Sequence to fold (287 residues):
Amino acid sequence: MNITAQMVKELRDKTGAGMMDAKKALVETDGDMDKAMDVLRQKGMASADKKMGRVAAEGLVASSIQDNAGALVEVNCETDFVAKNEEFKELTAGLAEVVATTNPADVDALLNTTCPKCGKLISEVIKEKIASIGEKITFRRFVRYEGNTASYIHNGKIGVLIQTDKKDDELMNDICLHIASSAPEFITRAEIPQSVIDHETEIEMGKEDLLKKPEQIRAKIVEGRVNKLMAGKVLLEQPFIKNPDVTVGQLIEGKLTVTAFTRYMLGEGLEKRQDNFAEEVMSQVKG
Fold:
């Protein structure tokens, strides 16, 4: 398979590995991006906690907490310039409020919901903003929780929404800040799928520093490493961001229980538009 420069760049963006190392890994795996990432991790050239998302698209993450519900949304646009536009900010905040108050089943249902404030379909509201702002705007995703909820938004780029069994504003805010910073994937160890544990075990077993060790010793070391990796994915086992001497579980014990959480990072999994500025200028000159 022909390994292109774009493939090498994508693997570098995802892993932080060097250019030649990324190319070698792609050659070794015949261009399979996921397998190439595993190869780099086994060679110690990529980190498990490095987020493997693609380059972020532009837009905003926003939240809205209403009487008995909270919502977290992501709305995308084409440029950072528009993301900072007050009109776009108002649109995103308004959409979060509509999600919190109307409880749509999914994005399609939301687009066909009538805006409580203006009486128009949400799809029409977005079309009008596209015409006004002059860029494509996409309502990408949302999550909504009922009951005791809290949220935290960091610079419009990272958003967190949590649901708890009891109300404690200060503690809930601290948990939101922690999730935004530490990016846990699960609340408890029991939520981790066995497939995730098996995958990490396979990677650790193949690491070069262990290959010459006896099988029994290698298995014991791998078990410890995987256990540490899994603890890093679990909210209740992570050291609390404001006081690493205690875990989040110890912090909230006897005070409240986190029943659900969602963390959005703007554009994760989306490819950023890569325009060639020189070509764009030339096309306008020729036009």
In short: The longest helix spans residues 215-233.
